[in-house]
Automatic annotation (TrEMBL):
Residues 5-101 form the PP4R3 EVH1-like domain. Pfam families: EVH1_PP4R3 (PF22972), PP4R3 (PF04802). Residues 682-820 are annotated as: Disordered. Coiled coil: none annotated. Residues 701-732 have a biased composition (Basic and acidic residues). Belongs to the SMEK family. It comes from Ceratotherium simum simum (Southern white rhinoceros). Residues 144-649 form the Serine/threonine-protein phosphatase 4 regulatory subunit 3-like central domain. This is Serine/threonine-protein phosphatase 4 regulatory subunit 3B. Residues 682-692, 798-809 have a biased composition (Acidic residues). Residues 733-760, 767-789 have a biased composition (Polar residues). InterPro entries: ARM-like, ARM-type_fold, EVH1_PP4R3, P4R3-like_central_dom, PH-like_dom_sf, PP4R3-like.
Length: 820
């Protein structure tokens, strides 16, 4: 149906008394069998689906407003509106409604819903009282007029009759002439009556009266009447504010006089609703619904008219991005766009899409990049609001822009880095702006709203970009406040050794908490990328320094970060935690907290309870072997005793399996007792023959333990059906010195000293280690190790380990391994 006369938007009024757009379609009035009567049908212009099916009820009150609106209530709290593109279409449907209800199409409202007693009362009244008789408009009658207006507000039918009387006699203009006379005579009593009269007329909720009251000719006098509230000792100076203080700023001259008038009118009516009129009580909240609609539809018109004027918008953008534009002018331009975007929220989704696409095409994002870096706080705040509208509308559009930008610009001036820096540099003690920016960043890095198409995956492309170009900016404050040299202390369980280095500044603590919240989100949603980053930067160790902060909320943020990591039950993370002895700061915090029963205590206990319930064997063994003595006195929960029980049960199981394996197959990886391990260490380091082997550790994105650690004894395992589980292969083993040893299996070709043709590409290498047969320090747990002949390599190097790295001898009969 291409007839534009019948083109309408369907609106419903929500609980907040705001109009929600339900879509655009074409309206028709047809007899619907199911509803047993003539009905209004609206079918969507996009797909023909039914947007509205509403029977024209003979008792429903329909209102016609502003020539192109029809408003009615379907149920007690369900208001509907049809906004027509053309007046002719509105008139046509209005005639159909009036025809069904037996009304004259010249009326503005078909009827009112009134209660039975009132209906009976009016039925008894003679027909001659069709309209209310208004007193003559004179100074001495103002009190009588005020009483009349106030008295009708409780009766819908009397409100309607009074509205018709006011409209027919041009009464409002006469009242406003009286207002000028009263003000000249300083007649305070008369002015107080006029306040009650004008306020009462607004509460009649009649669009035709609003059009008179809010015209250029009358609106300032209406505002004047509303200044004289009898409850106030002195009248307010609203007119002075509207004419002198509130200046209409044209960033670019608006030549369309109708548009200028509409903007002025909307601002003033909004001012009346928000500032002048008191907040309506529960009984009055529906009295101003038409006023809300009046403002809403005005805003729709303003945005549509501005958007259609391409020359105007192009000129605005040209000035915004011009380096010659002075700061004051640029501030005005940014504020214009902020208000423009706010008005655009009244548009229906289809038109809003077109609106933001127009802004994007004209270059809103590069313009924002410039203004977000300005010193002016007001400009930055407005730019942030505009950016939030864009991110909310289309995160993908913003992501595409920053990835294209990265190919031409340095990291420092990338839009996302500008946003991160604004977040870090927020001067507000409560970090209000930083919280808003953090929410926007989270939306941008959320994989849930990333698109995947046949030829490209936005998720992988954008996350690669973010971790390469932006993550270092985001984590800089965290790494600065937890510098590495301050983290490496003696391993004394129960000591409060780091308390002096944690940031005591409340604002810094708030900022670090925000950053940790974002990183915790990354752990949950980004898996592979964040895993690489955490291991390369040894990030968890740095975060856990904050467990000693005097700000408990920050310690809890650090703990939440670790809890999220452990919650993934990823053995790569588990080995990283045990290898780095990263439970120590958590246990220190628990012990330092003493007997206090607070959130920190509960959160730490819950972390260990999770490990017990989920039976994470590698972590259980590490905790029991290293910390049980410090924890066994905690008896108000059974968590730690439960961990000990789990550990002992697993140990028994391992011993039983070990006894069932033929002696020829026994190797150090099946042993769990310290004595056997010590003997094996001696055999390992006293090997005379030096041979080079290969150590293969799969890239971090692989999750299966079989892929991570290929088994050199696979042929034996197949014949004996004794293939070991991941936990048996990779559980950390105690050495005589109290440290842990990690045993990594390798491919058969490596054991034979041959080159593997399917080697993984080198990601990072450490220098070859040398052995003196007496002690050994090796590289920390690697995220990926190359399978090349002649070296043991890892991704994560620690500076204090490099000088002491020692070369280990290998034998074709033994599996090369990385120990600590």
């Amino acid at each position: 149906m291409s007839d534009t006369r019948r083109r309408v938007k369907v609106y419903t009024l929500n609980e907040d008394r705001q109009w929600d757009d339900r879509g655009t379609g074409h309206v028709s009035s047809t007899y619907v069998e199911e509803l047993k009567g003539m009905s209004l049908l609206v079918r969507a212009e996009s797909d023909g689906s039914l947007l509205l099916e509403s029977k024209i009820n003979p008792n429903t009150a329909y209102q016609k407003q502003q020539d192109t609106l029809i408003v009615w209530s379907e149920a007690e709290n369900y208001d509907l509106a049809l906004s027509f593109q053309e007046k002719a279409g509105c008139d046509e449907i209005w005639e159909k409604i009036c025809q069904v209800q037996g009304k004259d199409p010249s009326v503005e409202v078909t009827q009112d819903l009134i209660d039975e007693s009132e209906e009976e009362r009016f039925e008894e009244m003679p027909e001659t009282s069709h309209l209310i008789d208004l007193p003559t408009c004179e100074l001495n009658k103002l009190e009588e007029i005020a009483d009349l207006v106030t008295s009708v507000l409780s009766s819908p039918i009397r409100r309607e009759k009074l509205a018709l009387a006011l409209e027919n006699e041009g009464y409002i203009k006469k009242l406003l002439q009286l207002f000028q006379a009263c003000e000249n005579l300083e007649n305070t009593e008369g002015l107080h009556h006029l306040y009650e009269i004008i306020r009462g007329i607004l509460f009649l909720n009649k669009a035709t009266l609003f059009e008179v009251m809010f015209s250029d000719e009358c609106i300032m006098d209406v505002v004047g009447c509303l200044e004289y509230d009898p409850a106030l000792a002195q009248p307010k100076r609203h007119r002075e504010f509207l004419t002198k203080t509130a200046k209409f700023k044209e960033v670019i001259p608006i030549t369309d006089s109708e548009l200028r008038q509409k903007i002025h009118q909307t601002y003033r009516v909004q001012y009346i609703q928000d500032i002048i009129l008191p907040t309506p009580s529960v009984f009055e909240e529906n009295f101003l619904s038409t006023l809300t609609s009046f403002i809403f539809f005005n805003k729709v018109e303003i945005v549509s008219m501005l958007q259609e004027d391409e020359k105007f918008l192009s000129e605005v953008f040209a000035q915004l991005t011009d380096e010659a534009t002075d700061d004051d002018k640029r501030r005005e331009l940014v504020n214009f766009f902020k208000e423009f975007c706010a008005f655009s929220q009244t548009l229906q989704p289809q038109n809003r899409d077109a609106f933001f696409k127009t802004l994007a095409k004209l270059g809103i994002l590069p313009a924002l990049e410039i203004v977000m870096g300005m010193d002016d706080l007001q400009v930055r705040s407005a730019a942030t609001d505009i950016f939030s509208y864009l991110v909310e509308f289309s995160p993908s559009m913003v992501r595409e822009f920053v990835m294209q930008e990265a190919q031409q610009s340095d990291d420092d001036i990338l839009l996302i880095n500008v946003v991160i820096e604004q977040m870090i540099c927020d001067t507000d003690p409560e970090l209000g702006g930083a919280v808003q920016l953090m929410g926007l960043l989270r939306t941008l890095i959320d994989p849930e709203n990333m698109l995947a198409t046949t030829n490209k995956t936005e998720k992988s492309e954008f996350l690669n970009f973010f971790y390469n170009h932006c993550m270092h900016v985001l984590t800089a404050p965290l790494l600065t406040n937890t510098s590495e040299d301050k983290c490496e202390k003696d391993n004394i369980v129960g000591s409060n050794k780091n308390s002096t280095i944690c940031p005591d500044n409340y604002q810094t603590a708030q900022l670090l908490a925000l950053i940790l919240e974002l990183l915790t989100f990354c752990v949950e949603h980004h898996t592979y990328h964040i895993k690489n980053y955490i291991m390369n930067k040894d990030l968890l160790r740095r975060v856990l320094v904050l467990m000693n902060s005097k700000h408990t909320f920050l310690a809890l943020c650090a703990l939440r970060f670790m809890r999220r990591i452990i919650g993934l039950k990823d053995e790569f993370y588990n080995r990283y935690i045990t290898k780095g002895n990263l439970f120590e700061p958590v246990i220190n915090a628990l012990l330092d907290n003493g007997t206090r029963y607070n959130l920190l205590n509960s959160a730490v206990v819950e972390l260990f309870e999770f490990i017990r319930v989920e039976d994470i064997k590698s972590l259980t063994a590490h905790i029991v072997e290293n910390f049980y003595k410090a924890l066994e006195s905690i008896e108000y929960v059974q968590t730690f005793k439960g961990l000990k029980t789990k550990y002992e049960q697993e140990k028994d199981r391992q011993n039983q399996k070990l006894n069932s394996v033929p002696s020829i197959l026994r190797s150090n990886r099946f042993r769990r007792d310290a004595k056997a391990l010590e003997e094996d260490e001696e055999m390992w380091f006293n090997e005379d023959e030096e041979e080079e082997g290969k150590a293969v550790v799969a890239p971090v994105e692989k999750s299966k333990p079989e892929d991570d650690f290929p088994d050199s004894y696979e042929k034996f395992m197949e014949t004996k059906k004794a293939k070991e589980s991941e936990d048996k292969e990779n559980l950390p083993k105690r050495t005589s010195s109290g440290s842990f040893k990690f045993t990594f299996s390798h491919s058969t070709s490596a054991a034979n000293g041959t080159n593997s043709t399917n080697s993984k590409p080198v990601v990072a290498q450490t220098p070859p280690a040398s052995s003196n047969g007496s002690s050994s320090k090796t590289t920390n747990l690697a995220t990926s190790v190359t399978a090349t002949k002649g070296s043991l390599v890892g991704l994560v190097d620690y500076p204090d380990d490099e000088d002491d790295d020692e070369e280990e001898d290998t034998s074709p009969r033994k599996r090369p391994r990385l120990g600590s």
